[in-house]
User: Which sequence fits this backbone?
């Protein structure tokens, strides 16, 4: 899909196609449509990022809370969005052994309690084996810093999903 | 459900229950969770309304664009959220005659083109027969005024859905 095609979309098509580049936040794609025309992938994603950066703190936390728990029990596989399911499958998180999975689940619960949002990680950019280590590291970060880190992961995921939709190299 | 139950919810439960009181905008419920505890229905809805009012123009348009077209062909029935389907059914819009439906569809298309968002109406507060007349009237309003009117309808729908969930009289 080239950028002329994107610029020709009405808001219904645009939200259908881009509504989940920020997980479960079609509102953001629907808002970004106001900023068309777009000159390319970089310009398009700039508007997604600017919208997130312009949200109040509660809204930024809200974006994170729309993400599924990684390898979590709360969101059964069937309820993951297609994008998340592909990304989690590719990362091999469903292949964690029972003990590793239990430990990972304990740490994600601690993370959720500490920060008030789920652990978000751009899995396609990570070594699967590194996810538990990264989780343990981020669990110890100060909340304001961790919010910035987590939103950075949301933006990486957004970039990858947009590049995928536009058929470009990330 | 009483307000103590609401205040005891973790963000996952809260978004599951309240994620669609603003149509297809779980981000807003996820943000409102940051404002707990809530003293009651009025306090809870105040935070939903304040979040919408605090959005930039593109975000307010985005909220509207997440709503389905009334009696529309773009969103087939199966894709409506459960809440929208109930509200549209109750309003009898699916019972429009062929000619009325065609006329209604033409006007909603004009509305969409003029304002860049779909026609939103709190159907449960309207006489079904009045919807086409109200659409024709609002189609002639200045865009800034119509945005305010449409967001007012979003808030009425939010109020009705919240009252329904809390088991209170709207």
Assistant:
């Amino acid at each position: 899909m080239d950028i002329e095609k994107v610029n020709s979309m009405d808001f219904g098509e645009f939200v259908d196609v881009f509504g989940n580049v920020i997980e479960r936040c079609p509102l953001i794609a629907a808002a970004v449509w106001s900023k068309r025309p777009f000159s390319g992938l970089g310009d398009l994603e700039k508007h997604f990022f600017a919208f997130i950066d312009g949200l109040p703190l509660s809204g930024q936390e809200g974006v994170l809370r729309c993400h599924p728990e990684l390898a979590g029990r709360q969101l059964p596989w069937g309820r993951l969005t297609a994008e998340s399911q592909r990304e989690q499958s590719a990362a091999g998180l469903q292949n964690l052994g029972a003990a590793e999975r239990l430990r990972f689940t304990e740490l994600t619960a601690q993370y959720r309690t500490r920060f008030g949002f789920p652990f978000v990680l751009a899995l396609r950019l990570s070594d699967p084996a590194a996810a538990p280590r990264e989780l343990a590291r981020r669990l110890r970060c100060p909340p304001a810093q961790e919010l910035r880190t987590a939103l950075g992961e949301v933006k990486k995921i957004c970039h990858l999903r947009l590049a995928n939709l536009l058929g470009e190299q990330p």
